[in-house]
Amino acid sequence: MRYALIGCGRISPNHLVAAQKNGLEIVALCDPVVEHMEDKAVKFSLGPSVGRYTDYRTMLAEAKPELASICTESGKHAAIALDCIGAGVNLVIEKPIALSIADADAIIAAAGDRNVKVCACHQNRFNKSVVKIREAVEKNRFGRMFYGTAHIRWNRGREYYDRASWRGTWEQDGGALMNQCIHNIDLLRWMMGDEVAEVFAYTDNLEHPYIEAEDLGIALVKFANGAYGIIEGTTDIYPRNLEETLYLFGEKGTVKAGGQSVNIIEEWRFSDMLDDAEEVKATHHENPPNVYGYGHTPLFADMIGAIREDRQPQVTAEDGKRAMELVLAIYKSAAEGRPVKLPLGKCDTTDFMGRFS
What we know:
alpha/beta; Rossmann fold; Dihydrodipicolinate Reductase, domain 2; 8-stranded mixed beta sheet; 6-stranded parallel beta sheet
């Protein structure tokens, strides 16, 4: 299967590793900065037969990939995705899938019209720990869900933002919740029943006056099934990343997943006693070198299967929209100082320009 990478920045090596491990034929790299492409070409031993393009439209016309990854600035995801879908190219879109409800809806509609597969890159759903937890949810081992919490306690300093001028801007990124915290927000929504009724939140910029958006978000979430959620996300933790944890509490079960990227099961308690907790914790444990984890490779494997079998991927464009929608609802609640009901209508990160000026 012919594969192309659009955007050769920070996350792109994970996509190239996944592409190579899944046996994809890498036919093209695309980035407006030639040095970024050449760096990845050298690191992944991609010879001159792999095209280099500074314009993705030219790449689509000449390289004709069947599958592409979009790893550019978040604010460019939607426009590039719509052009790729128009060319019949299946997509893995890095999070967030878009920065507005309208753009996410446009991607979903276009993909449906063209029968193009679109996967939102929430790779933590493929963590060994998360797969095991999801299995317990689907088997109703928790019973009635009471509440869950997502904590993302990370650090991002001036150097991180100085490396890319789009980071922390409302037009191209959003803040800590949209960029760093959206993976765990996706997991909380997915595990707790997915449908959100209402959100109340606070956001602030406490430590990063050189960015436009938030570095702290705290939210209360009411799910349609009567369960509750708590989200705490920040990039203010001194002096380095501390943890990313997910707690789930039900009438018959308690689970805690932690580690760098919810990759370790730390608590496993169920009334049914169907498995040994210590064995579960030992077996469903990963120690990745960074917060991106190992999930890209199985996510790509599933996406390739979806294309070949003409089915939807396990993480759909709709899933990507739901995670982004919850972040936008948090932004909206914090900006307006009131609870916000979902689903959202028109909402865009640019609606919040000037919040922390």
